[in-house]
Amino acid sequence: MLTFHTADTQLRHPRSELHGGQLVTPFECPERVEIILARIHAAALGEVREPERRGLDGVLEIHDSAYVEFLETLWENWQAEGHGGEPIPSIWPARTLRGDRIPENLEGRLGYYALAAETSVCAGTFRAALASKDIALAATDQVLAHGGGAFGLCRPPGHHAARDQFGGYCFFNNAAIAAQHARDQGVARVAILDVDFHHGNGTQEIFYDRDDVLFASIHGDPALEFPYYLGYADETGSGRGEGFTLNYPLAPGTDYPRWRQALEDALARIQAFGAELLIVSLGVDTFAQDPISSFTLASEDFSDYGGLLKRAGLPTVFLLEGGYAVEEIGVNVVNVLSGFDAG
Ligand code: FKS
Ligand code: ZN
Questions:
Q1: Catalytic residue annotation
Q2: Neighbouring-strand partners of residue 14
Q3: Which of 66, 245, 320, 323 has a CA 20 to 30 Å removed from the CA of 47?
Q4: Ligand 1 touching residue 324 (CB < 6 A)
């Protein structure tokens, strides 16, 4: 299987993540990509290619233009204010405040465009987010032209990014941009299957009222797990989109047999929908040793479900999302991809 990667993703290297009341080294770190690349080579998965640079192509089809401009200028504006640390949101238009006015003040706008506080911004964040998006587009074009599977080694991840909000380590919604790109290329029905441990709230929000992009997510129960405020089973879509959002919230400690049942159910629904393209939001934070998650998949389970995905028989774009057991992230990601190739 072909992989798409560019070193520009590594321009994202914030030094702080607000975690447990402390600023820690971010879980979503550049080493994740290094280790996955090393494993791709060691396992001879296939060629690694650079994506074409496409500027803002694809971004404004999904994201709000004022949000994009905010992200593009955030670092320089923050520097101009003379702060010592990285931008971290600290106030939001919470339930008792007004959410219909965008403040002029930078701290005010930071909260307006953020959905959580763990995601600090650094100098290269915007360029890395564009590179990550270009990787997703290149992997999608590869699959549209040649069928089979392709892997986008995206970083930063995308599935928490909503139309005008960043958070959960995400800025641009790579999977949503890829799906819209496929639609614009004439693919009638696209399915996004989100197997990251966390609910893909951004992807869900973006397609919630649409019947041309089906979104299915298997994740930790939001009553107990990030992002807490979306991802319940009763969220099924609205208007024309009713029935085109599927959520499988699962309990902490969920093991592979139970997780696999949810996957089989989701794949059956994707087949019944008549999807012509499958985009997998591939997070391997379902791994038992993941430091911030609570499912119990083992490395060989990733190979097994890679084969299951292949047997769905659809052209398939894999886009990297989460996974924080850094030592094992390469093995787990490549197991899914080689499981698919062997399936
Ligand atoms: C720790 C609470 C959880 C944020 C978790 C973000 C998960 C991100 C992800 C992505 F794929 F987007 F990277 N903090 N104090 O894995 O879903
Ligand atoms: Zn995750």
A1: 160
A2: none
A3: 323
A4: no
